[in-house]
Amino acid sequence: MRAFTTFSGLLVGVLLLIVGGVNIGAAADQVIRVTPLTRDGTVFVSFEADAAIDRDLEQTIQSGLPTTFTYDVELGRASAIWFDHSVGTATIAATVRYDNLTRRYNVYLLQDGRVLETHPTDSAAAVTQLVSSFHRLPLFTTRQLQANTEYYVRVRGRTRPRRSWTVLLWDRPSAFGNAKFTFLG
Given this model, what pLDDT does residue 14 score? Predict the structure, then answer.
């Protein structure tokens, strides 16, 4: 009986680790503020991540190691009966490279793997703004949306190199946010 109790306790502990994930050395999850706007057949998405660069990431960037902030954006419609209906997805990434010789940063903004903009700067404050604040990105079309229906935009953020380790085999977002809106057509 004692062996069964020990085995049961061990099994419950392993299941909690797998389901909940264990983050080692991670700060509390960050909140992303999301604002969707529909206009002229397009869904524009704005989002901001507070405190995107903490002391550890700042040191990583200053070391010259390329650091990427990736935001997975999903447009979907909630379903009460089954899984939510995904209308579309987009990936926004900002990679920071610091050159120790010139003491300048290069920030590359990408959408779905395509380079949109490159921003050279010598200001750490400008880097923080460039990797954490995005305004009116034209990410989705309204062609697939139904009039007078509620939709949501969900944004999940993560960084590379990782700021924490988890026992899970998939990436756990370090920042999360969503917003609902009704498409009026």
Answer: 42
Average pLDDT for the chain: 82
pTM for this one? Answer: 0.78
* pLDDT of amino acid 17: 39
Is residue 12 situated within a structural domain? Answer: no
pLDDT score of 163 more than 90: no
By CB neighbour count within 10 A (0-12 exposed, 13-18 middle, 19+ buried), where does 178 fall?
middle
Residues 6+ apart with CB under 8 A from 44: 36, 37, 38, 136, 137, 138, 139
The CATH number assigned to the domain holding 51 equals 2.60.40.10
DSSP-assigned beta bridge partners for residue 71: 92, 157
Predicted confidence (pLDDT) at residue 51 exceeds the cutoff of 80 = no
How far is the CA of 60 from the CAs of 16, 139, 140, 159, 160, in angstroms?
A: 31, 30, 33, 11, 10
Q: Is the pLDDT of residue 112 over 80?
A: yes
78: confidence class by pLDDT, cuts 50, 70, 90: confident
Q: How many domains does one find in the chain?
A: 1
Does a structural domain hold residue 3? no
